[in-house]
Amino acid sequence: MDAPTQYPERPVTDGVNAGAGNGAPDLDEEDLLRLGSYMPVLKFVASLPNATNATRQYVRQLAARQAV
Q: What pLDDT digit, counting tens, does each position of 15-65 carry?
């Protein structure tokens, strides 16, 4: 953890949909099919009282993409 970065030219937010850098990669059809088998568990986790709004939103977005 205390080693210098191996990628000094990349911002810390590279790979997420916020801040500088490239955003997160979009899911393709194969990814969506693979995630389909996990949807019951993901929906359960999203329904828990201590689930974050971000978790609930992400599961809703995945479910919507699966329905297409």
A: 555 556 565 556 677 777 778 888 899 999 999 999 999 999 989 888 887
Distance between start and end Cα atoms, the chain:
42
- H/E segment holding residue 62: helix 53-67
54: phi then psi, degrees, rounded to nearest 5:
-65, -40
Gap between the Cα atoms of 20 and 33, Å rounded:
30
CA distance 54 to 66: 18
Do residues 13 and 21 make contact, with C-beta atoms less than 8 angstroms apart? Answer: yes
